[in-house]
Amino acid sequence: MAETAFGARSFGHSSHSQDDVFRSSSSEMERKAEIVGSETRESPQKPFTVYTIQVTHGSSAWTIHRRYNQFFNLFNKLREQFPSIDFHFPPKKAFRNMESDVIQQRKQHLQQFLDLVVAEQMIFESSGVVYFFDRSVDVSYNNGDDRSSSKKNALKVRRLAVVGFMSVGKTAVSTQFVDEQFSEQYVPTIENTHHKVVTHRGEEFVLDIVDTAGQDDSQILHQRYTIGVHGYALVFSVASRRSFEMIEVIHEKLVNALGHDRFPKVLVGNKVDLTVQREVSTEDAQRLADSWGCLLLECSAKDGDNISDVFSKLLAEIEKAAAPEEKDTCIIF
Q1: Order of strands across the sheet with 295-298?
Q2: 332 in a domain, yes or no?
Q3: For residue 15, what are the contacts with CB-CB under 8 A and spacing of at least 6?
Q4: What ranges in 166-306 are assigned the alpha helix state H?
Q5: Count of structural domains within the chain
Q6: Which residues form the PX domain (predicted)?
Q7: What is the domain range of residue 210?
Q8: pLDDT bracket for residue 71 (50, 70, 90)
């Protein structure tokens, strides 16, 4: 992983990485994960069962081996990330867990769990699932034998959505942050998901960054932009008054969908490098951010200016919202 700004590391995201197999731009590809067998393996502690899984995505297919604890870790990660979804996960067993009838029943339940994981694109592209299906991950990574991989799998996941009007540079902001790259070519985004490991206050997080399709006032906000999303970067172009007006509409859609306006967010004015074409003043943008009770961050995806701040500040807002509120203590003498 390459070191980047504010303690961040790209998380297997490059033009030739396996993560590309999971890109949502290929959402119509066939997705399948089938448990095709199981076997018993020995360890210094006790025997354990390993399940063989055949993974298919589009024209790509590969085989992985996973033990129950790896499924269980993925379940816990997804349960935290998508609390509204019932994953029907089989419980742990203290006894008889090596008997053939128990293994067969557990295999059926684990298959039902995988079916749900691959059926929903939003879940399938989350970093925990990408890592679970990674063929380079060893079966022992959660058995204490591979401490570095176990630590990586235990990272907290935060899902961020980058939303805004068409042509405001949502993709450019995301790829500049993740890959430190910028392309002059404009290709309308259907939807994309990027992954990056960052450090915030000494703790590492996996950021799942959803680069959304451009919204307009006639479009309905898709449910996948509200389920399991921890915070939002609302992006407009300082060179487009129309995009600034639209970001207010998009914010209102989010408020209506979420049922409140207290969700973690930052207002992002992109393309500050276009000084001559500027149509939105910093003062106007600041007034809007103040009315929402959030930070304003102006940046340039082209030059890389303040791009890191967009995501570090948003993560800070997410963690601040998640922290338990300090309560006044009353001392009685």
Answers
A1: 3-4, 8-10, 191-200, 203-212, 156-164, 231-237, 265-270, 295-298
A2: no
A3: none
A4: 170-179, 241-258, 282-292
A5: 2
A6: 29-140
A7: 156-322
A8: very high
